């Protein structure tokens, strides 16, 4: 999330991924003023023009928020309300309009300033700023970004792990045949192709991470091909105009390509190699919750009702919710209120999606699970 403070009541924000859109959903409330660029169909009174057709134009408006919803399927945030200001005379004040916010869109959020006794206090809370700084993860490991490379002699998979979201690129193939069919191929060319793919993923991470490019490459796969590739790139040192990377070679993963990526993402080797990552933190919390459930230790909550009761007592230490939980319980706002209540009590709140095994496990446990500070009957 790219954030810039404008004054005591307003700041500009640019969401960079789905986690940031969820953070905005949790921060924006009814009555907030949202300024952004959107489109509207304006009907023109012209000769020979069809009365049922209009011209779609781009306008800049300020909306007093009345309704806000998140569509996690297409990664869009929809904000509806009345127009407070507009740069187009054809869009009068007081009319209703909706704005769609996607990753990369810039908006300005203004909250009411409450004044008492001649002093001033901004409408932004400490929890609001914590959510925006840490995305949907409360801060711990929220900005961790790694490039995962699962390499074999025949194929290679490259993925970007940002927070708890895993974005896997299509497999690359060396052209090497199987045991019975020999084909001519060049491992040098294959390694060059993989190195270029890593550069492209690193640039994508820089565009979507506030300009901070990922420099840590986790390299794994069967055999010694991964070590040969590490030597090819010079152990991560700059080579042929390419930037330097920190190369971490991991043993114990015997699959390459996309399959190897997913195996690594749910392995013990992942936790050891990138223990500071948000995914490793969430995986450890989820294992502790399941361990408490097996041992019948009442230091966990599963589902909306149990977690809400624990949050009201201030007992939640860490809360994990799946991306579909906002729609799963019928009322998106009540789930958002639960997440914010837990955050205000000092809990770490983590959102996970179905791109990893962790997200599927959280969804299978009711969509919302929590590790508690103390036992609650």
CATH architecture of the largest domain: Roll
Shape: globular
Give the helix proportion (percent range).
Answer: 25-40%
The CATH class name of the largest domain reads Mainly Beta
CATH superfamily of the largest domain: Pelota, domain A
The helix count comes to 11
Description:
This protein is of the alpha+beta class. The protein folds into 3 domains: 133 residues, Pelota, domain A (SH3 type barrels); 131 residues, Nucleotidyltransferase, domain 5; 94 residues, 60s Ribosomal Protein L30, Chain: A, CATH 3.30.1330.30. The chain is 31% helix and 30% strand. A 7-stranded antiparallel beta sheet has the order 1-2-7-3-4-5-6. Strands 10, 11, 12, 13, 14 and 15 form a 6-stranded mixed beta sheet that branches. The protein is globular and about 65 Å long. The two termini are 39 Å apart. About 2% of the residues have low confidence.
List keywords for this structure.
single chain; 377 residues; alpha+beta; SH3 type barrels; Nucleotidyltransferase, domain 5; 60s Ribosomal Protein L30, Chain: A; 3 domains; seven-stranded antiparallel beta sheet; 11 helices; 19 strands
Chain-wise SSE layout:
Layout: E1 2-5, E2 10-14, H1 18-27, E3 33-42, E4 55-71, E5 76-86, E6 96-101, E7 106-110, E8 114-116, E9 119-121, H2 126-134, E10 145-151, E11 155-162, E12 165-168, E13 172-173, H3 187-207, E14 216-220, H4 225-232, E15 246-249, H5 257-265, H6 268-273, H7 278-295, E16 300-302, H8 303-312, E17 316-322, H9 325-328, H10 332-344, E18 348-352, H11 357-364, E19 368-372
């Amino acid at each position: 999330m790219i954030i810039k403070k404008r004054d005591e009541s307003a700041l500009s924000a640019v969401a960079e991924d789905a986690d940031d859109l969820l953070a905005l959903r949790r921060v924006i409330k009814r009555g907030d003023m949202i300024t952004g660029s959107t489109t509207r169909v304006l009907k023109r009174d012209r000769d020979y023009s069809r009365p049922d057709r209009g011209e779609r134009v781009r306008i800049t408006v300020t909306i007093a928020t009345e309704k806000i919803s998140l569509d996690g399927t297409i990664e869009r945030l929809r904000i509806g309300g009345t127009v407070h200001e507009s740069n187009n005379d054809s869009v009068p004040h007081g009319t209703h309009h909706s704005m769609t916010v996607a990753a990369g869109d810039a908006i300005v959020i203004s909250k009411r300033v409450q004044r008492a006794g001649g002093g001033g206090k901004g409408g932004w809370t400490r929890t609001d700023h914590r959510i925006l700084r840490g995305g949907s993860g409360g801060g711990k490991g929220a900005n961790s970004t790694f490039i995962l490379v699962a390499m074999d002699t025949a194929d290679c998979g490259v993925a970007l792990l940002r927070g708890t979201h895993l974005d896997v690129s299509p497999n690359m193939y060396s052209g090497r045949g199987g045991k019975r069919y020999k084909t001519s191929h060049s491992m040098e060319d294959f390694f060059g192709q993989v190195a270029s793919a890593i550069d492209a993923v690193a640039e994508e991470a820089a565009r979507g991470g506030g300009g901070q490019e990922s420099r840590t490459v986790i390299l794994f796969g069967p055999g010694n091909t991964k070590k040969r590739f590490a030597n090819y790139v010079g152990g991560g040192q700059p080579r042929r105009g390419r930037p330097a990377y920190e190369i971490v070679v991991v043993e114990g993963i015997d699959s390459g390509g996309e399959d190897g990526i997913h195996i690594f993402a749910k392995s013990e080797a992942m936790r050891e190699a990138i223990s500071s990552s948000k995914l490793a933190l969430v995986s450890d919390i989820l294992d502790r919750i399941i361990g408490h459930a097996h041992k019948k230790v009442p230091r966990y909550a599963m589902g909306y009702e149990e977690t809400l009761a624990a949050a009201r007592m201030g007992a939640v230490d860490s809360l994990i919710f799946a991306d579909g939980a906002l729609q799963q319980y019928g009322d998106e706002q009540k789930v958002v209120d639960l997440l914010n209540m837990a955050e205000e009590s000092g809990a770490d709140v983590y959102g996970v999606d179905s791109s990893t095994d962790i997200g599927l496990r959280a969804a299978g446990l009711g969509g919302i699970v929590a590790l508690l500070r103390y036992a609650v009957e």
